[in-house]
Amino acid sequence: MPKHIYLFFGPPGSGKGTQSDRIGKDFKLPVISTGELLRHEETIKSALGKRVAKLIDQGKLVSDATIHELIKQRLSLKDTAKGFILDGYPRDAEQLKDLMSMLKKTDKIIAVEIKIPDKEVINRLSGRRVCDCGATYHIVYNPPKVAGRCDVCGKKLYIRHDDKPEIIKKRLVDYKLASGPLLKYAHQAHNLISIDGTASVEHIYEDLLKRLENQE
Ligand code: AMP
Q1: Quick check: is 191 in a domain?
Q2: Is residue 148 domain-resident?
């Protein structure tokens, strides 16, 4: 059985984190989000975390060399042996090249693109609330049981600095610029699944699951 590697693409706020987590649980594969790895480094105040904190807050991309360091280390862990899901990586053509150099020819790559209009991105991200434990909420669409508190660990929720409107706009422009070649690559390799991200979380999940199972 080849190792399955799922790449989740979509603008910030498209719901790729939510969907990749659910698919990860179903397929018993780890979900690796470079954004989360970086935020974890920030939380534990590692040297790398201190180096990248300002860039993340400003919605700027972290250097490919730093991302390489993080991903290489994460992919060396045993839980990736049967495959894994990537969320937020690769972010550009250089990172795609780097990822390919870490994979084997027999590995099967399946890309998922979740599409949503810009207006919806801004609406969703401005209502997003997050917790340090990785849980994500939306004040209207997915509110926590107790306002401002995480359902999973009870900690106080907060607004990510890069979810401010002017930074969201910049992240959107960057996403469009960088993701073009990646999606083209996935399309040409006949392994791109495009999903309408404006449907309900449940609907997207069921549609996605069906289409991924068809790929097996
Ligand atoms: P995300 O959680 O995927 O929205 O990422 C949050 C922030 O982390 C981004 O705005 C970037 O500053 C940084 N980041 C995450 N993944 C990458 C990546 N693959 N390459 C460069 N920077 C990244």
Answers
A1: yes
A2: no
With vertex at residue 151, the alpha carbon angle to CA 74 and CA 32, rounded to the nearest 5 degrees, is 15
User: What is d(CA 195, CA 208) in angstroms, rounded to the nearest whole number?
Assistant: 7
* Structural domain boundaries enclosing 47: 4-117+180-213
Handedness of CA 124, 70, 8, 173 (dihedral sign): positive
**70 close to 37: Cβ distance less than 8 angstroms:** yes
Which of 74, 124, 129, 160 is labelled catalytic? 160
Contact residues of ligand 1, CB 6 A cut-off = 12, 34-35, 38, 55-56, 59-62, 67, 88-89, 91, 95, 162, 171
What is the Å distance from ligand 1's center to 196 Cα?
A: 22
Tally the domains of the chain: 1
Whole-model pTM: value is 0.87
Kind plus residue range of the DSSP H or E element containing 63: none
| Parallel/antiparallel/unpaired status of strands 128-130 and 136-138 | antiparallel
pLDDT in tens, 20-55: 999 999 999 999 999 999 999 998 999 999 999 999
CATH number of domain containing 188: 3.40.50.300
Strand partners, 8: 87, 112
**pLDDT tens, residue by residue, 83-117:** 999 999 999 889 999 999 999 989 999 999 999 99
